[in-house]
């Protein structure tokens, strides 16, 4: 599965690269999707998603079939792409101005660019009747200027996923709630000869989570918003957040060779935790699924705790860093596209997804279907959240998000100082402004 | 690509004709030169038919190569996010930025290192294997096939394979070293900033030396056995025969193989992308990876295009200079021969 995903990514990467060197973007726009074909008299809805894992992939296809059965004049064409491949492909699609009828979105900066290019349908009035009971945190990434541009189907947040057995072995009875307590826990694990943290250094975004959460805890959400608006991240608190990352790195808490480790491969971050070789990872709500997919999975030994608060910081333990997955609709798509989104969001299907694929429901009505204690913990933390910060690489312009990933990766590798991180990010943010 | 194929074709004919023609400038004396020059009409018709036959190729070349290249050059003068039409013209800013960008300068340095490694280690190794497998040896066809096999394997499969082999602690490499008591030699491999490039070079050598070996083997077949025989009778040692017969007669092949290795190193992308994505912390990033990162991760199409133009110019200057100064002897033979035959 993974190898296959990589193949398509790399081939596309190679194509894209050769396009930029020799062929130019003109060639890329040529591979735009065909518009809904009417040759058979049916309306064709093209639906691009990133659901590559089972059983979700199967359930989604079934739901499309059910919709087709209820609407004989509609045909749904499903295109499933691996995460990174999807992002690359969508870049090309957006550049050519041709988006699929329904497409996956994480909201934030990328969605905003697509909206600014006039490619996304405003759904505010069309969906308000059936999205009333959605968690505020779940719709936050898709609300821009008080308009709603996508319908979430999944919501989540980042937190620590830990191995209870290994924590117990190191004499840690309750998960830490403060940063100093957290560092003590890391030391205790190390003393016991346990690798405290697994990290996918090759992919950069998992490392960014540490800096992002520490910035939220030290500087606070308002300061983060202000920094984004002013394109200035040089504030003292952001430097402090970086210094806390350095503190952690200085303990050498990561698995051997973490700088080259991928996230979901058999030798990657998720597998290290899933196989009990590392005690925890800072990861989103999808972590248990990937741990079991790439490794053995921890079962009952798996626990979840929120990112600890930093002593003297302006942020609170209850402020969550996360995002949701949603579907946006192309401007000018057939009405059936929106019909399908409504059909997809119906309660009994939402409950089915919760039960069988382990996602966290966006509507309060479907919360009753949750049985996994860890996901209930995530769902509760989201329900009780006093503040919400969208993933930085989604919230900010792509160049800024990438620079944060890059700079924090350099900070963790020891080649950039906390000040240099804030300066590099600010420089890119200003040039993008 | 066009360069490499055209040169390899011309050298092929060069090596085919070179031994026969020797120093004589073509076959001018024998070829019957017409006494009177062809009429203007005749020449016009010849030009016309040449034009008609080349138009389809020229249109395709223009549409798929020249136009996009021109477009990339055009957008390299803009600050453009890839959406809509580029409007924010920034002059030469993207180009001056290249020379301030530690990542791009690092790309150049790493590209240079890989080229140097290739010429100093990989090609001599391929040559040694070729000479070895050119002897009468039991099962040499099997060895040739085995050594050539990695070249046929896709870059992506190679990448996935070796990222598993060189996974720290858990990979095959570390396990084997551990088992034979050499655990100290194991290490971070792709995960270390200092070890990633040598490890990558190891994989590149594994992947590509078979190709160069095949080139050399083909070249070795073209060396007449009589020369070696005569030298042996005159009492030349193995080394002398290699140095004074094999090497000079293999020179055209060597020159082409160096050319291909250099162009390959400049355009290196997929193998590195799959294994390290340029990491850790840019330690294995190549020009094409930077281009991809800026263009399709950061959506800075203008700057990415500037990188692509820089890359194009480097390749072009190298290719032209190499043809002019190094491949001159090989191509000259080919061209004079063709002129003579016309």
TrEMBL record, chain A:
* Keyword Signal attributed: yes
Q: Which residues form the signal peptide?
A: 1-19
Question: Pfam families annotated for this entry?
Answer: SBP_bac_1
The reply to whether Plastid figures as a keyword in the UniProt entry is: no
The record's section on InterPro entries has: Bact_solute-bd_prot1 (IPR050490), SBP (IPR006059), TAT_signal (IPR006311)
From which domain of life does this come? Bacteria
Identify the SUPFAM superfamilies for this entry. Periplasmic binding protein-like II
* Keyword field: Signal
Name the record gives this protein: Extracellular solute-binding protein
UniProtKB/TrEMBL annotation, chain B:
Is Membrane found in the keyword set? yes
Indicate the transmembrane segments per the record: 47-74, 108-133, 145-167, 247-269, 301-322
Chain intervals for the UniProt region annotation (Disordered)? 1-34
Q: Where in the cell is it found?
A: Cell membrane
Task: Output compositional bias ranges, type Low complexity.
Answer: 1-16
A Pfam family found in this protein is BPD_transp_1
Every copy of the ABC transmembrane type-1 domain together lies at 108-322
Primary location class? membrane
* Superkingdom of the source species: Bacteria
Keyword Transport appears in the UniProt entry: yes
What are the UniProt keywords, alphabetically?
A: Cell membrane, Membrane, Transmembrane, Transmembrane helix, Transport
Entry protein name: Sugar ABC transporter permease
What is the native source organism of this protein? Streptomyces vastus
């Amino acid at each position: 599965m993974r190898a296959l995903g990589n193949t398509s990514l790399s081939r596309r990467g190679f194509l894209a690269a050769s396009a930029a060197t020799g062929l130019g973007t003109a060639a890329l726009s040529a591979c735009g999707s065909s518009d809904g074909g009417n040759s058979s008299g049916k309306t064709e809805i093209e639906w691009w998603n990133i659901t590559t894992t089972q059983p979700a992939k199967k359930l989604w296809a079934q739901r499309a079939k059910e919709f087709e059965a209820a609407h004989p004049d509609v045909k749904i064409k499903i295109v499933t792409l691996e995460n990174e491949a999807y992002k690359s492909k969508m870049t090309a699609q957006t550049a050519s101005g041709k988006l699929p009828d329904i497409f996956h979105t994480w909201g934030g900066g990328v969605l905003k660019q697509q909206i600014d290019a006039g490619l996304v349908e405003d759904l505010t009035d069309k969906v308000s009747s059936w999205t009333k009971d959605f968690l505020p945190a779940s719709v936050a990434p898709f609300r821009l200027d008080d308009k709603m541009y996508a319908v979430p189907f999944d919501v989540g947040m980042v937190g620590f996923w830990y191995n209870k057995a290994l924590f117990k072995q190191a004499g840690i009875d309750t998960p830490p709630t403060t940063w100093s307590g957290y560092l003590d826990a890391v030391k205790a694990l190390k003393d016991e000869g346990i690798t405290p943290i697994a990290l996918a250094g090759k992919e950069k975004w998992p490392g960014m989570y540490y800096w992002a959460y520490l910035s939220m805890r030290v500087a606070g959400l308002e300061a983060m918003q202000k920094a984004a608006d002013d394109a200035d991240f040089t504030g003292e608190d952001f430097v402090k957040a970086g210094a806390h990352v350095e503190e952690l790195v200085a303990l050498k808490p990561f698995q051997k060779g973490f700088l080259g480790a991928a996230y979901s491969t058999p030798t990657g971050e998720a597998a290290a935790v899933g196989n009990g070789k590392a005690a925890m990872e800072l990861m989103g709500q999808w972590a248990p699924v990937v741990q079991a997919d790439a490794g053995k999975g921890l079962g009952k030994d798996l626990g979840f705790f929120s990112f600890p608060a930093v002593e003297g910081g302006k942020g609170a333990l209850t402020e969550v860093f996360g995002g949701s997955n949603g579907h946006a609709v192309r401007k000018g798509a057939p009405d059936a596209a929106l019909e399908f989104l409504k059909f997809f969001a119906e309660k009994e299907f939402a409950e089915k997804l919760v039960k069988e694929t382990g996602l966290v429901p966006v509507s309060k009505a479907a919360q009753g279907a949750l049985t996994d204690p860890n996901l209930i913990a995530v769902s509760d933390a989201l329900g009780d959240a006093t503040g919400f910060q969208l993933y930085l690489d989604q919230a900010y312009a792509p160049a800024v998000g990438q620079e944060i990933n890059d700079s924090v990766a350099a900070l963790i590798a020891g080649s950039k100082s906390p000040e240099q991180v804030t300066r590099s990010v600010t420089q890119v943010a200003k040039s993008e402004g | 690509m066009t360069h490499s194929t055209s040169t390899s074709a011309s050298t092929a004919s060069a090596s085919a004709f070179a031994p026969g023609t020797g120093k004589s400038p073509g076959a001018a004396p024998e070829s019957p030169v017409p006494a009177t020059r062809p009429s203007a009409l005749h020449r016009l018709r010849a030009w016309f038919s040449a034009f008609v036959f080349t138009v389809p190729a020229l249109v395709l070349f223009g549409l798929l190569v020249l136009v996009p290249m021109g477009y990339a050059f055009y957008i390299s003068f803009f600050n453009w996010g890839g959406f809509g039409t580029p409007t924010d013209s920034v002059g030469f800013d993207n180009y001056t930025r290249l020379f301030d960008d530690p990542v791009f300068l690092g790309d150049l340095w790493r590209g240079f290192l890989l080229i140097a490694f290739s010429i100093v280690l990989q090609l001599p190794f391929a040559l040694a294997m070729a000479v070895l497998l050119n002897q009468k040896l039991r099962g040499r066809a099997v060895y040739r096939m085995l050594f050539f096999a990695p070249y046929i394997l896709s870059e992506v499969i190679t990448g996935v394979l070796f990222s598993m082999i060189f996974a720290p602690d858990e990979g095959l490499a570390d396990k084997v070293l551990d088992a034979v008591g050499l655990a100290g030699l194991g290490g971070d491999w792709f995960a270390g900033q200092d070890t990633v490039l040598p490890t990558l070079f190891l994989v590149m050598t594994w992947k590509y030396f078979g190709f160069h070996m095949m080139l050399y083997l083909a070249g070795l077949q073209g060396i007449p056995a009589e020369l070696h025989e005569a030298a042996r009778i005159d009492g030349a040692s193995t080394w002398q025969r290699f140095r004074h017969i094999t090497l000079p007669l293999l020179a055209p092949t060597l020159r082409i193989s160096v050319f291909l290795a250099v162009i390959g190193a400049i355009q290196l992308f997929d193998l590195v992308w799959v294994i390290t994505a340029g990491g850790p912390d840019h330690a294995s990033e190549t020009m094409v990876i930077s281009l991809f990162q800026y263009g399709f991760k950061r959506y800075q199409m203008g700057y990415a295009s500037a990188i692509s133009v820089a890359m194009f110019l480097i390749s072009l200057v190298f290719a032209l200079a190499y043809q002019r100064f190094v491949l001159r002897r090989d191509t000259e033979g080919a061209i004079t021969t063709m002129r003579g035959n016309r």
